[in-house]
Amino acid sequence: MLLKTTIQHIADELKLTPATVSRALNNHPRISAETKKLVNETAVRLNYRRNRIASSLRTGKSHTIGVIIPSARINFFGSVVHGIETIASEYGYHTLIYQSEETTELEMQAIEAFLGARVDGILASLAKQDTDFSHYTDLKKKNVPLVLFDRSNDSLNIPSVVIDDYKGGYYATEHLIKQGYKRIAHLAGPQRFQTFQNRLQGYKDALRAYNYKQDESLIYMGDISIEKGKKAADYFLALPEPPDAVFAVEDFSALGLIKRYKEREIKIPEQVGIIGFANEDFDEHISPTLSSIDQQTVQMGREAFSMLLALIEGDKSQVNIKSKIILEPIPYYRESSVRVNQKTTTTETLLEEADNF
Amino acid sequence: MLLKTTIQHIADELKLTPATVSRALNNHPRISAETKKLVNETAVRLNYRRNRIASSLRTGKSHTIGVIIPSARINFFGSVVHGIETIASEYGYHTLIYQSEETTELEMQAIEAFLGARVDGILASLAKQDTDFSHYTDLKKKNVPLVLFDRSNDSLNIPSVVIDDYKGGYYATEHLIKQGYKRIAHLAGPQRFQTFQNRLQGYKDALRAYNYKQDESLIYMGDISIEKGKKAADYFLALPEPPDAVFAVEDFSALGLIKRYKEREIKIPEQVGIIGFANEDFDEHISPTLSSIDQQTVQMGREAFSMLLALIEGDKSQVNIKSKIILEPIPYYRESSVRVNQKTTTTETLLEEADNF
DNA sequence: CTGAAAGCGCTAACAG
DNA sequence: CTGTTAGCGCTTTCAG
After folding, report:
1. How many domains, in total, are found in chain A?
2. What pTM does this model have?
């Protein structure tokens, strides 16, 4: 609270009432052009800035959304937040941010904080720790507009924006098939997450579609750490008939694979092809460069906000509100999986600078 | 505005006045313990949540800070925001976020938005495009608490938190010297940024301190792109007496160096040692792993918030408000620059998972 | 220890 | 086209 010019000051200055000034500033149709002009001029002259707090209190709209992410340090979420904030500010919305640090407790605190701040709606990505989701389902009962992004859960029946993990898994596997690999393994992620279930299913279905036989021994249950990637490589190499390609559920586990395969002097992509998932920055900078599936982070943020906006303004038109948006994953084929003469299929925009300066 | 229980409802319920309820909720000393208990119980029972907007309007404190960053996509800033939000919420502050996209215009819009939202203070990192800084200096005149982080400008006389780039440059260079490199070059960044000036100065002073002779031909004026890193490598290799080590102003330019040196079959760190700046995620995943200087992002966020808080509450104690905090850069020595038998000097915490899922 | 009353700054009925 | 009036929900004098 640092500025003082109010609507009242402008009114005094022009011998008008605050109501008229308010209307003029809001471009109300029944105010004369001249008054509007005068008001706006004096507003500028007096360095007036509408007090959004007072306005919110009166109208019941804060024009603010709350965003809950596990952590702002994680690239992926930074990117999504980028998408969200960009479009939110285009629509005149402010973006409050909160981190759950993967805990349900902080998530609940965030929701409390947002309700206290009377946000118009909430965007959230579930914390890893979540097993009970009542803090989210309660929001539905309270009629608080809510959209989940990336980490969602179908059973909650909350509108969401996710990428098509199934297709991503399918594409990745299909790509390896088309590259002529014959025994294609999958380094899977924890199956309590739908995300990873879907990637696994995509893998299986792609194999089936191309008449590859399913071999359960080629599915290694791991997670998304470098460490597990290394262990997976050891496991695969110890098989009587090792795979000649691996679709890793995530780039970091793919990185672990690469590291271990290199240590053991297995040539990539000649002896083993590798593709990951997430399209992390480092993919293009390691050797060999890592093929991966992009998750459309920025677009995800934009879509999530648009959906939320539809819900917020939903009283007007309950129509046109989709309950789930599934984004198309975008494959980037790089050295780690391309062994025949092929070009990258997608235009790659290189991250050219590290801009923190 | 989705909940309805107000202080009035609680008052009605208990045959009290709103004033008493308010006091009870705020733990006012002159309210009986019993009343407080009753009020708090009914508050919970009625699912009351303080309307922060009304409260802000009345008290003139929004308990919200605004944060302006160039982009949430940039790792570095995501990390700083992580630090800021974490401590801000500990202190009961909400964090509004805005991106400048490196433009002065969006920065000005952000400031307008924040003033409209009556934030209690602003944290900002300057946009690359900024040449005129009046939108920031004006804030000072308006008595809006403001702290700059990372990208600051001493001439503005605005409190700031930065890392010690000079020391970082010094450490990096000294390390190369101690590794026994004899001709140490510097791939410098644009000198209109103090940050880069300071790193250059650190480089020069370290050379001087160890009686290395200064050779202007060993300073390549570049920027922080991979491309310039490659060009720099070409430049260095074309010199009559090429350097045997390079301190690159930033990890991405260091990456460019590595890529080109590898293409030209120069061995790292045997024939040329390389160290960067920023400690990007990929440093540990490329080959060779890249030595670098960490910028203490999370700590920077924490410090910046603390400083802002001191300013916000400054009316009480104008003392103890530092005008500039300079954080110590932390070197991470990895394969790209270590050629004698040496261990990494700092404990490295590996990014173990990619947590977007 | 509690109540009464006023007001933060804005907007929306309801006049006129 | 503009004024009057009232009130969003909370906090804070001032009384008692």
Report:
1. 3
2. 0.88
